[in-house]
Amino acid sequence: MYVILVYDMATERVAKMLKLCRQYLNWIQNSVFEGELSEVKLQELILKARALMNEDHDSLIIFTSRHERWLDKQIIGNEKNSVDNFL
Hints:
By secondary structure, the chain is α+β, with helices and mostly antiparallel strands. It has 2 helices and 4 strands, in the order E-H-E-E-H-E.
């Protein structure tokens, strides 16, 4: 499945969440990631993220779609980290 993940964390947890998310998804902008994940990998990521979070103050938002082609993506301005797929 195609995943877009957005987080808002307290400053002391941002670096750990960034490192975790980079293990699973492509970083595209501050606190925003995207990529293909299996359901099992997504649940694994959520479990690890919950362990880092203070759910009373932090938030994690996950958008899922069957495939990236079902989303329209428009980038205006500087693309922080282009995601190219090489075969």
